[in-house]
């Protein structure tokens, strides 16, 4: 497919704009009686439609080629825009003739007075539909300079599909004795495909390494900023305590010389006057200033709260959240996951790569140790706890913490493997809970056979047993289980 295929349609694609301008010129010069506007419009629509269908046919052929043989080479891609561009001529012509429907269509056309309005509405709808066919793909603007490289633009698309990306980046594989031109974007031998795949993977590895380093640097900056902010909060807290001590102890006698009764008595005076309904406000030492908040004391009195108290509360909240972020990152760094546990079912390529080095083996070994440590921790809580119910509670709480920590890897390649590992730990807890419920049930049956059940024993019907054995409502059943034991 080349750009010359659409050249015969170009004369046909200008007939509707030409007819619209011709009718508009006749109206301006009052020569509409010399023209058959209806015949001109119908002929223009017929010829323009033929040209649009030719362009649509070429576009359909190109889309079919995309579905079978991927994107063409760079020097052939301008033909795509030439074959799609004619829709703009058709849209302009339809809208122009539709706006002139009251001139083109005679009165009482086809026995209705609404023919003009119907034609105008239809022209707008058809124009919008054709305009939608020529809409380009929205431009994605990178939000950070770290991902401004043109190679990474495709990864910023919210609808990014790895399979579609690989299909668009790599040519199809040649099967059997097929022989095709390499320049025509056809299938290539396995050796050429392997070279292109290796080059693509090398570029991806370079960008991944760079972005990983950038992420590490940003994380270090956050951690350093957290320490500095924590120091500033502590410094402000110390200054606040020092000021409060000075006001309440050191300067108390000096303040009473100027304010009889102290600052507290002066602060109560404005609130008492407001309660009595006094309309006129007088400035006093205890009146709240701009930026101060009013606080209601337990005895119903209203006092002014300095603005730095609100700032101190804000800094305290910020500090607590920074501590939470630091703890989460610390736990995430300790939760090393072995590369061998990652799922490879979504891979689309299998290429030869160099043997992993010592660092890869170290990560694998450390990850296996971390996973085994977590398994031992859950197993110890389930089997070696003095109170089996408390052991199940602690194990379930630990698994919930791991699930929350797993949100750090949401959307990454490690999410699926980590989720699967956490599910295996949860399965251990559910199995232990099921066994414990079975033991309690058997004990209650033995007690029931000997005589009247003792107070506090567990009684469950068939539906409850089925629910317990299913493992649902684990935390809600632990209290019942504790009472039974």
Short structural description:
This protein has 485 residues and is mostly helical. The chain has 17 helices and 2 strands.
The number of helical segments is: 17
Oligomer: single chain
What is the mean pLDDT? 73
Poorly predicted regions: 180-184, 277-292, 344-354, 451-473
Q: Per the principal axes of the C-alpha atoms, what is the gross shape?
A: extended
- Spatial strand sequence of the major β-sheet: 1-2
Helical residues, percent:
55-70%
Could you give the distance between the termini?
Answer: 80 Å
What is the domain tally? 3
Q: What string gives the helices and strands in order?
A: HHHHHHHHHHHEEHHHHHH
Subcellular location: Membrane
InterPro entries: Mae1 (IPR030185), SLAC1/Mae1/Ssu1/TehA (IPR004695), Voltage-dep_anion_channel_sf (IPR038665)
Membrane topology: Multi-pass membrane protein
Keywords: Membrane, Transmembrane, Transmembrane helix
Can you describe what's shown?
- With 485 residues, the protein is mainly alpha-helical.
- It has 3 domains: 3-133; 226-317, no CATH class; 336-346 and 359-484, no CATH class.
- It is built from 17 helices and 2 strands.
- It has helices spanning 10-13, 15-28, 37-69, 78-84, 86-99, 101-104, 115-133, 162-169, 190-250, 252-258, 262-275, 307-334, 358-383, 388-405, 415-450, 462-470, 474-484, and strands at 293-296, 302-305.
- The chain has a two-stranded antiparallel ribbon.
- A hairpin with a 5-residue loop joins strand 1 and strand 2.
- Helix 3 (37-69) packs antiparallel against helix 5 and helix 13 (358-383) packs parallel to helix 15 (415-450).
- The protein is extended, with a radius of gyration of 39 Å.
- The N and C termini lie far apart (80 Å).
